[in-house]
């Protein structure tokens, strides 16, 4: 069976991996767009603290987290996955009680989270933290390097015969895939769906999750932005022009790629890719700006993830690196780091971890999280040969490999391991 996977992020890479494992002939088309979420994600795997009122959303993320150890064993490759635990922190111990109750309720069906315990001095585990904080420790939480796991999945798929095409993919009305060598994206070329843009377009993430979900802070209040054109000159990577509407125009008619089935895992660009099929999918980008810092001579590899009830997360990686993020901004297709965004991340991060004041700013990243407006993720068939898999929002690195597995099962006509009705495209 010939399957084309549109999108080379973590969902598309996982789909290619599972498809080739089932003997399918796979072609991955990767546009390499500026702002792809996998390239920027921090890599937090701690689903048990979120979506307290949405069991279906939670189930997808729980199964995604549960699948990681098996994936590590299958791939036999170090892609940065490590169970380092997560500290849920607050200056007010009373704020920890609702999440403690949630974890206790979920423990029976998710013992992999480990026994949750109180931590009287969280700075003993994450030294830069303020000494005014109280914390709960969730020992089963893990962190993963999104770029590395994506690379491992693609490498394994290629070793099994998958082909990777660099270029932008389009669909014809009958579902034929065409690959274009280069794309320009003037702002007037495309249409867009934006939050609050019409009836029935509700915010996709409920309040009440421990981790921040809704746009907040000064960076989020900047309003819609126009994406700049190509840039260079300061040593940063060139920025491909991606319009506010994600509209794409091409200099060629594209090269057709034969397929018996197609998986569209195009992240925030999925709606635009699927529009020729007559599917108006309300998928939109939610920007996240992330800061990487280094602490010379400090071993940060096994520091736990830090999850405040409101504000930034923090986590350590090997190489004396600490990640702080992220902003949550509905500003359209504007994959750029802003002064306001960095200010928000820095101020909030130092409030929680003042010991980072002397750290070296090493890198900034920006990603466009794909959000499906009606809620939850979007995984299901659009027609008899096209499957869509996107909308994981801030949980792409938690559930991405598992979502790719689900999409692969659908493309092959197999029964997925969980009921996908809650994630099906809305009529």
From TrEMBL:
The keyword Flavoprotein is assigned to this record: yes
Comp. bias intervals (Low complexity): 211-224
Signal peptide: none
Broad class of enzyme this protein falls into: oxidoreductase
Region: Disordered, residue numbers: 183-238
Highest taxon above the source species: Bacteria
All residue ranges annotated as the FAD dependent oxidoreductase domain in the record: 2-179, 248-410
A GO term for molecular function: oxidoreductase activity
Coiled coil feature spans: none
UniProt key word Iron-sulfur: no
Names of the cofactor(s): FAD
UniProt KW keywords: Flavoprotein, Oxidoreductase
EC numbers, comma separated: 1.-.-.-
Similarity comment: family membership: Belongs to the DadA oxidoreductase family.
PANTHER family from the UniProt entry: D-AMINO ACID DEHYDROGENASE (PTHR13847:SF286), SARCOSINE DEHYDROGENASE-RELATED (PTHR13847)
Protein name (database record): FAD-dependent oxidoreductase
